[in-house]
Specification:
alpha+beta; 4-stranded antiparallel β-sheet; 2 helices; 4 strands
């Protein structure tokens, strides 16, 4: 979760459903003011994966945020 440390101070909150390459469980990711929490998402029928960011101003750009999140190829 190194990318969490690279989020700029203009990002206040982030939330989403994510997966890691080494597990099949869906995780709920929650970030608030520099701290984050991961917990197992209890509904395996939900297939959507997403991250939502809330912050101030126009920085960072959506592209910058996406580049900060490491993504493993599906499959």
């Amino acid at each position: 979760m190194r990318f969490v440390g690279s989020l700029p101070s203009s990002v206040f909150r982030a939330k989403g459903l994510i997966e890691f390459a080494d597990t099949e469980e869906t995780m709920l990711f929650q970030y608030v003011c520099g701290r984050f929490e991961l917990s197992v998402f209890p509904n395996p029928k939900v297939r959507d994966r997403f991250l939502t960011f809330i912050g101030s101003g126009n920085e960072p750009s959506i592209q910058d945020l996406l580049e900060a999140v490491p993504v493993a190829p599906a499959g």
